[in-house]
Design a protein that fits this description.
alpha+beta; 45% helix; hpI Integrase, Chain A; 7 strands
Length: 371
């Protein structure tokens, strides 16, 4: 079949509509770009690969002012490169890649990672315009537009983008898209993440307002964090067997190991209530449906409660841990005591709470008679 100069607009306009595309001079051996004339003023671009006696076709998109011969030729070349690299050729979207990533994490028994990623994708990817974009068409401007549209803290955006990037990288490794697609998200700059996780202090009035805005299992979890300063995972993984009502202590298990800490009267009352009538291996803190809390299950619920309580932007469950540590130091507890209570090192306390440590030390020093 005769090659046609489809790179010329005038030639394309004069072609007769037909189902079989008009083919240009091959881009390379067995690699061709064609133009299918659909109507007097309509047409679309098609790529064709001949290999092992078979012909494989790829619809590239409709002809337009912004997608003419140069753009179609570039799209065809990327498709050919992808096939050469083993890409399946399926029109995988960003949503497809994210869903596959979550599934793979669960297959690897990484439930916490899978759950956290799924929650993030459900909130801001699956129903977004970005989620519908094919990986082969993904460009930096798609991601920048998505980033600009997010209404979340810089820290939360960074964690969400990390999960998204992991899903996109996995799609490349699994040959769902060409490796050249990585240039769309490689080197993409995010808003600077301030170190503000330990700067939002909630005073007693604010903490009580947050508690009043919550109900059920969320209220219990918030109260537990307020009264102990524990990390969320230490509370949600705690079982009744870890609570000793006789000695008024609780054994917490976290990333720094296991520690046994004394409970204040309000905390003791809370843990007695939560453990009443439960078996030793039952979880103390559960959701309203009586199921265990999974990672990040509480994020949106805490945000809603914080908003209802008119708390500052960025208030989260971690803010209660920060507030507990700040309050404890300000009330005169030693760095060693606070470190043991919340399961961290004295060095970390001094690093992030030095202003409070110095303030308490100065107050005590003023009471020392030197002369």
């Amino acid at each position: 079949m005769k090659d046609v100069a489809i790179h010329r607009v005038g030639v394309r306009a004069g072609l007769t509509p037909r189902n079989e595309p008009y083919w240009s001079v091959p881009l390379s051996v067995n690699e061709s770009l064609g133009f299918r004339k659909i109507g007097p003023d309509r047409g679309s671009w098609v790529a064709r690969l001949k290999k092992d006696g078979r012909r494989t076709y790829k619809a590239l998109g409709a002809d337009s002012e912004t997608f003419g011969f140069p753009q179609a030729r570039e799209a065809a070349r990327k498709w050919f490169e992808g096939l050469e690299q083993g890409v399946t050729g399926k029109d995988t979207t960003v949503t497809d890649a994210c869903e596959e990533y979550v599934k793979n994490q669960r297959d690897k028994k990484k439930e916490a990672t899978a759950h956290d990623a799924q929650k993030r994708f459900e909130r801001v990817v699956y129903k977004s315009t970005l989620g519908k974009v094919k990986l082969s068409d993904l460009r930096k401007h798609h991601l920048r537009t998505w980033i600009d549209a997010q209404e979340m803290t810089a820290a939360s955006l960074a964690r969400t983008f990390t999960a998204l990037r992991a899903a996109l990288n996995a799609a490349v490794r699994n040959e769902l898209v060409s490796v050249t697609a990585k240039q769309s998200w490689t080197g993409l700059e995010l808003p600077e993440v301030p170190d503000n996780r330990r700067t939002l202090f909630l005073d007693l009035t604010q903490r009580r307002a947050l508690l009043a805005a919550a109900t059920g299992g969320l209220r219990d979890l918030l109260e537990g964090a307020m009264l102990t300063g524990c990390r969320a995972g230490e509370l949600t993984s705690a079982t009744c067997s870890q609570f000793d009502a006789r000695t008024g202590t609780m054994k917490f298990k976290g990333k720094t190991g296991t520690r046994i800490v004394p409970l204040s009267p309000p905390a003791l009352a809370l843990f007695k209530r939560l453990s009443k009538g439960k078996l030793p291996l039952a979880f103390l803190f559960t959701r309203d449906d009586r199921k265990p809390w999974a990672h990040s299950d509480w994020d949106e619920l805490v945000r809603d409660a914080a908003k209802a309580a008119n708390l500052p932007a960025g208030a989260c469950l971690y803010s209660l841990r920060h507030s507990f540590i700040t309050e404890a130091i300000s009330r005169g507890l030693s760095i060693l005591d606070v470190a043991r209570l919340v399961g961290t090192s004295m060095m970390m306390i001094e690093k992030h709470y030095c202003q409070f440590v110095h303030s308490v030390a100065l107050e005590r020093l003023s009471k020392v008679v030197m002369t």
